[in-house]
Amino acid sequence: MISSVSWVPKGASKSVPAVAELPSKDEIEELIKNGAFERSDDAESNDNEEEMGFVAEADKPGDGVAQALTVAEALGKSSKTKASSTMDVDDVADGLKELDMDNYDEEDDGVELFSTGLGDLYYPSNEMDPYLKNNDEDDNDDDDDDSEDLEDLTIKASDSVIVCARNEDEVSHLEVYVYEESGDGTPNMFVHHDIILPEFPLCTAWLDCPLKGGEKGNFIAIGSMGPSIEIWDLDIVDEVLPCVELGGIVEKKKKSKKKKSNKATSVKYKDGSHTGSVLGLAWNKEYRNILASASADKQVKIWDVAAGICNITSEHHTDKVQAVAWNHFAPQVLLSGSFDHTVVLKDGRNPSHSGFKWSVMAEVESLAWDPHTEHSFVVSLNDGTVKGFDIRSAQTGSASELKPSFTLHAHDKEVTSVSYNPSAPNLLATGSMDKMVKLWDLSNNQPSCIASQNPKAGAVFSTSFCPDRPFLLAIGGSKGKLQVWDTLSDASVSRRYRGSS
Q: Is 245 part of a structural domain of the chain?
């Protein structure tokens, strides 16, 4: 399944990403400490599946999805093989050194397995020496191969990049796709590289906080079944560790137990960490080091990514918090939506204020601010509806007047995702567990359906309009195959919005 999709703005990616070096001894030690070389036998998957608010009963994966992917499996070993938890760091380092992956493709000098008996012959000129001729040809072939490899690795300025959080056969990873237009106008899409993840990913947020110096960066934040938030550098290929980890577990110790089936564990978390799955993330584009997170532990946290610390923890919800979003025009204003049937607005400019709370009568699946006005937002719910709100009514009215501007019965099942078009005002995309994606015109708070499509993605978990090519809609769902819908190919959309592209 694909649980989340995020677009990378054009120009943010390096044209030729760097290739990561082999992990150092300290990094290997960190992997072992985090349990990357062993599979967990704890019966935790059922609890973890309950924390995934967007997974329907019929589409829930098996017990294995919540288990961490081991490095051994990533190298092709059997999923049934369990590495020793006491593996020595030097053993791993020596093994990687012995593989000598940097020189994997180079042939050993001076080794001749099958001799022709002509090895010692002397030739008057190099042109007459068949070995030198062959070497020249081989060198040309190698140059061609290197050129092709570089071309495959290069991300052109005209390319769009999509990051998918994906799980397949108990393997969790990020897939970085390149979406390019060919000479004849037909799009081509392929996986540029991927990143193996230790936990089942639930949500993503792209950010350009300059974590490694310079003016900008190209990073992806990932919330998962675990309590930590990992931030990966998208400009590095074959990386094995995130560049930043926010929160997480310091150690997990098994308590003494009488029966194997009733294992108990004592967990110690890092300072400021979530203690449940991270269900939602939102990067603040104005304050670029700030990231908000929503969790199954009922908390909303605001992180300083550059410092790696949690600055603020809010506990204004009474159930799992599914989604968070920063206002595009007032970047100190944060929305959060919860399974407790409420949406809460907090304004950092007035920290003493308790904020505003809207009751939505169902579990919140997702929410989004309108990028064309600072006053409006929409919330999608697990009863198939989408509600629109205007915060000006909350600022002037009483609690009893906090009613929606509209209620739209959009889908037959949970509306798991909403995405505003960044170019065309009032154009909203919705995705649902009913496997449909629909486009809505919200003009005058009277929603009308413009187009609908079954993108063959299965139950839809994530939709996102492209910021640079605003009528491309990325879609991810239970079938695990990324789909991109060029919505202008629909006649009704093209007639209405062709000028907005």
A: yes
Q: Do the domain assignments include residue 43? A: yes
304 with 317: CB under 8 angstroms?
A: no
The beta strands (E) that lie in 305-355 are given as: 309-314, 321-326, 333-338, 342-347
Residue of 422, 426, 438, 425 whose CA lies nearest to 475: 438
Number of domains into which the chain is organized: 1
Highest-scoring range by mean pLDDT, 135-139, 238-242, 263-267, 492-496: 492-496
Range of the domain at 15: 1-96+139-279
- What value, to the nearest 5°, has the Cα angle with vertex 79 and ends 256 and 67? 50
Q: What is the pLDDT of residue 75?
A: 31
Q: What is the C-alpha separation between 501 and 484, in angstroms, rounded?
A: 16
pLDDT over 80 (residue 412):
yes
pLDDT-based confidence at residue 45 (cuts at 50, 70, 90)? very low
Q: Do residues 469 and 161 touch, judged by C-beta distance below 8 A?
A: no
The CA–CA distances, whole Å, from 113 to 107, 108, 110, 117, 171 equal 12, 11, 10, 12, 40
445 falls within a domain: no
Amino acid at residue number 50: E
Alpha carbon dihedral 6, 65, 410, 467, in 10-degree steps, equals 0
List, in order, residues 6 or more apart from 397 with CB less than 8 Å away. none
Residue 90 lies in a domain: yes
pLDDT band at residue 484, thresholds of 50, 70 and 90? very high
